[in-house]
């Protein structure tokens, strides 16, 4: 059987059709890329800061950390007049640092905060290169010497432990000296954290800077001082009608 002539011949120029479709897709893709690049370039520092602080709140970052981001990024923007994330440069960062009449340690602290902000901008796709990595502030590391037991004893000898306020201060000094906790942790210390039966502080992660729970032992002398302070705290709470168990008395009356 012979095939009818032209039956298998396609009358449409498929090659031309494919070229037109390909060109159309290429144009659309190019337009999409240009729009994406334009949106990156137009990301304002203000909008970026709002987005990043929202992400930090959702992630559970401390309010102090979030407020530091806002404080230093807004200060950078005021000094440099830079409006968009893509316009931040090494020169603008150095201009910001040069405007500060503070110690190098303070400059370094602020720089770290701005770098953290820029790293989050990078993670969000608003910056394509970590150009700020080479910027640093040289700071001489000073080792702070701790108080000796003799110095602590001299201080305690100068206090009138018959006065509640001075008793409270004496206990604060002893707790920090003997356990090594920070003053911010001390201010959040509650009586429920103090195990007088086993002479141990059971510190929850929520009151520690690194969020890690820890147990810290203390001696019989500190135990005796803590018992006196706790008993007198109860008297003060009853007087002012307070129900909390904060160890430091200035917080009891709040």
What is the structure about, briefly put?
Among the domains are: 45-124, DNA polymerase, domain 1 (Orthogonal Bundle), CATH 1.10.150; 149-240, hpI Integrase, Chain A. Helices cover 57% and strands 4% of the residues. The chain has helices spanning 14-41, 45-59, 63-80, 90-98, 104-123, 149-157, 164-179, 183-187, 220-240, 249-252, and strands spanning 194-195, 200-203, 214-217.
Describe the structure.
By secondary structure, the protein is mainly alpha-helical. Among the domains are: 80 residues, DNA polymerase, domain 1, CATH 1.10.150; 92 residues, Orthogonal Bundle (hpI Integrase, Chain A), CATH 1.10.443. It contains ten helices and three strands. Strands 1-2-3 form a three-stranded antiparallel sheet, with no helix packed on it. Helix 3 crosses helix 4. The chain is elongated and about 95 Å long. The model has no long low-confidence stretch (mean pLDDT 84).
